[in-house]
Amino acid sequence: MSHHITEAANASYSYPDGTVGIKNISFKITHGESVALVGANGAGKSTLLLHLNGYLSPAKGEIKIGDFPITSKNLKDVRKTVGMVFQYPDDQLFMPTVLEDVAFGPLNLGLSDEQALKKAIDALKIVGAEHLSDRPPYKLSGGEKRSAAIAAVLAMSPNILVMDEPASNLDPGSRRRLINLLKTFKHTKIIATHDLDMALELCERTIILCKGEIKADGETVKLFKDDNLINQSGLEKPLSMQGCPICGKKPCP
Fold first, then answer.
1. What is the distance between the alpha carbons of residues 75 and 122, in angstroms, rounded to a whole number?
2. Which residue, among 8, 1, 14, has the nearest Cα to 211 in the 3D structure?
3. Can you name the CATH fold of 6-241?
């Protein structure tokens, strides 16, 4: 694919029980952007992300990667371009060792054993987890599993990195290491998160979802300063934008 643009046009999807997942979603994310998807539980964040890699397909409207709509015909090419890190690493890690897990994707793309192994080792080095190579995933900590899951996606050399709640269940140190790591990536990043401080630090643009629809799409700082918008969306301002609870000192405007 020559143009790594993610675009949705009036995309809608409802689950079999009638629950609305997304409704009339439209946006365009260009190459190299870092975009946060935020919203209360049930707002449609995870549902939308599952459409970006073809795990779900819109009942109405269209979602495209580059010039190509996401269909079963070009799904393999889409998944070479879009790498998805799931909310729960256990959904992604299933091989006997971390190295085998990280090499699994490149092997599926048709690389030789030697090429896949090199890709896997390089990806583990990027996330600082090469020391985990021979460990079974089920014996890793939450932060270690997250690093392994990210490495498994990076090993496939995607141009678009899609992440669902990447900081969930991480201790403060692991969260900071993750943020610092993501700052180094040149990929297009689409990050669904409840961690608005992380969104503020990583993403210049934010899309706010509410009941499956886009409530706002714009500059992260500007949206997060809008008290009415934040309250109506079931969110809370980032801690870094709140006043000190002890001295009452207000944050910088």
1. 26
2. 14
3. Rossmann fold (3.40.50)
Task: Check: CB of residue 213 under 8 Å from CB of residue 174.
Answer: no
Q: Which helix (H) or strand (E) holds 103?
A: helix 98-108
The pair phi, psi for residue 86, each rounded to 5°, is -75, 165
CB-count exposure of residue 1 (10 Å: 0-12, 13-18, 19+): middle
Distances (CA, A) of 57 to 8, 51, 196, 212: 12, 6, 28, 15
φ, ψ (nearest 5 deg) of residue 97: -130, 160
How are strands ordered across the β-sheet holding 20-29?
20-29, 6-14, 60-65, 68-69
Cβ–Cβ under 8 Å, residues 66 and 81: yes
Please name which of 11, 37, 6 lies closest in space to residue 23, comparing C-alpha atoms. 11
pLDDT band at 1 (very low <50, low <70, confident <90, very high): very low
Determine contact, residues 222/207, Cβ cutoff 8 Å.
Answer: no
Which helix (H) or strand (E) element contains residue 188? strand 188-192
pTM surpassing 0.90? no
User: Which pLDDT does position 2 carry in this prediction?
Assistant: 45
Helix (H, G, I), strand (E, B) or coil at 8: strand
Which residues fall within 8 angstroms of residue 178, CB to CB, at 6 or more apart? 143, 146, 166, 167, 170
Alpha-carbon separation of residue 196 from 33, 122, 232, 247 (angstroms):
17, 31, 15, 23
Q: Are 127 and 140 in contact (CB under 8 A)?
A: no
| pLDDT tens, residue by residue, 114-146 | 999 999 999 999 888 899 999 999 899 888 898
Residue 161 CB neighbours (<10 A): 22
Q: Where are the domains of the chain?
A: 6-241
